[in-house]
Amino acid sequence: MLRIANIKTPKMDKLSGSARLMIVSDLDHTMVDHHDEENLSLLRFGALWESVYCEDSLLVFSTGRSPTLYKELRKEKPMLTPDITIMSVGTEITYGEAMVPDDGWEEYLNNKWDRNIVVAETVSFSELKLQPETEQRPHKVSFFVDKKNAQEVIKSVAERLDKCGLDAKIIYSGGQDLDILPQGAGKGQALAYLLEKLSSCGKPPNNTLVCGDSGNDAELFSIPGVHGVMVSNAQEELLQWYTENAKDNPKIIHSNERCAAGIIQAIGHFKLGPNISPRDLQFPYAKEASFKPTDAVVKFYVLYEKWRRAEVPKSDSVIKYFKNITDGKYVRCDEVRIQKSILNLTVAYVMFFCGWFVGDVRVCSLSSLALILKAESPEGFVLTHIQKTWLNGYSSGVEQAFKL
């Protein structure tokens, strides 16, 4: 039984009740497709999440990357900011944009764990090559090992550590990565800990969807009650685990879509909620039965991006929709992260959010946008005011690249 720490963290208190949906996704080759130079599937997922789920659901990234490599990936790819981040193969849990660590989880992992002994006992295995220093963590010792030697080495190392009285776990993934962790660690155990923690607060998620592509994701699919999707590009090691352990489980599917597109497909397959991304819609947008400010903001920026890329026909309706937008150089809106709806009147909403834009340089601004409900308009609302403030470290000298 995991011991739940009585620690309050910003994002655990994000919701007043249970999350409508909690998505727990691996990053490399699952959420992030490194073969997709335009990041199309990642952007499709981001638009869907921000428009439909961000206010009442939880997004969890579960990655084998260390904090250092995770932050590098965030600089390279247009990723959303998750509510919870699980790193280093389930040995580190942090919350929110500030990445507040879960001290209770770290304390739990200390049981029967001695990193120095692990290092000393593995040094004699010539087949093991230490990974870079950034990937060596307090509760993780990581190596590279050739696939042909992996199973024999795993068996020998496990026997050696067992004789030393260590309760350790060895995880092999990606055809080369070998991680030694405390027995209580791993992506699956970290998720079980989070679910128990949420339940102890009276906020168990209504539905949980886990997503992965490699061997170190297998534990995620073992958690009772979760839905799971193996993306179409899943590796042999995960597919073999599925065949041996879960092929009769109707809650786990092998998508025929790659990476984030497979996650979107799974949301629809399991009927967990809407799975049509605003990036898949055509303008003019159909009027929704109920007005959702986040949806309106995301659709606005998606349409603006397409318009600047000459991907929508020039028409009076588009010009009227944008009103005061001026011409400039090409810019793509990579992420619109809705932070908070601070004013909710009978007929008006004011939204504050961070917008990231990519042209020749990557820039960020804090924007405010006012929406007035207007039943007679095609979309059911009109945009009345937009203001942008460039954040520290981002020059307003690129203002000509993006004008509202």
Automatic annotation (TrEMBL):
Keyword list, A-Z: Hydrolase, Magnesium
The protein's annotated pathway: Glycan biosynthesis; sucrose biosynthesis; sucrose from D-fructose 6-phosphate and UDP-alpha-D-glucose: step 2/2
Sucrose phosphatase-like domain: residues covered: 20-271
Pfam families (UniProt xref): S6PP, S6PP_C
CDD domains: HAD_SPP
Cofactor(s) recorded in Swiss-Prot or TrEMBL: Mg(2+)
Reactions catalysed: sucrose 6(F)-phosphate + H2O = sucrose + phosphate
GO molecular function: magnesium ion binding; sucrose-phosphate phosphatase activity
Top-rank lineage group of the source organism: Eukaryota
EC top class named in words: hydrolase
Enzyme Commission numbers on file: 3.1.3.24
Gene3D superfamilies documented for this protein: 3.90.1070.10, HAD superfamily/HAD-like
A Gene Ontology BP annotation from the UniProt entry: sucrose biosynthetic process
InterPro entries tied to this protein: HAD-like_sf (IPR036412), HAD-SF_hydro_IIB (IPR006379), HAD_sf (IPR023214), SPP-like_dom (IPR006380), SPP_C (IPR013679), Sucrose_Phosphatase (IPR051518), Sucrose_phosphatase_pln/cyn (IPR012847)
Residue ranges annotated for the Sucrose-phosphatase C-terminal domain, each copy included: 293-329
Family: Belongs to the sucrose phosphatase family.
Described purpose of this protein according to its UniProt entry: Catalyzes the final step of sucrose synthesis.
Subunit structure and binding partners: Homodimer.
Protein name: Sucrose-phosphatase
Organism: Zea mays
Taxonomic placement: Eukaryota, Viridiplantae, Streptophyta, Embryophyta, Tracheophyta
